[in-house]
Prior knowledge:
The protein is of the alpha/beta class. The chain has one domain: Glutaredoxin, CATH 3.40.30. Helix content is 26%, strand content 26%. The protein is built from three helices and six strands, in the order E-E-H-E-H-E-H-E-E. The chain has helices at residues 29-38, 54-66, 85-95, and strands spanning 15-18, 21-25, 44-49, 75-80, 103-108, 111-117. Strand 3, helix 2 (54-66) and strand 4 (75-80) form a beta-alpha-beta unit.
Amino acid sequence: MGLFDLFKKHETSSESKQGGVQWSSLSSEEDLDKLIDKSSEKPQCIFKNSTSCGISSMVLRSLEAQYDLKPEQADFYLLHIQHNRPLSNQIAQRFNIRHESPQLLIIKNGQVVRNASHGAITEVSIAKYL
């Protein structure tokens, strides 16, 4: 991987596969409500990504390379904060967690059971929350 690959933007389509993670786009309050409802069935993970931040891109790539979970184990949502900062702020308010970017939130039974930001994201074992 070249130096400039770190700064490539991820797709903003509704679903994309990066590494071993199947990402769904999180782009509306309705999407958030559905995600919270589904969290009673299986963990829901939100990654707040800044498409203009090299650190965010590096952490996202590391997350994708590090975790080899099957789609039935958890759902993964990608929120591009440049495209939807109001939704990012709403997530922060709803869960009473300060907005940061990059940021990972793991939600089970309607509650955030783990959150991390920046380099601490790579230390999170998502499998622990399955």
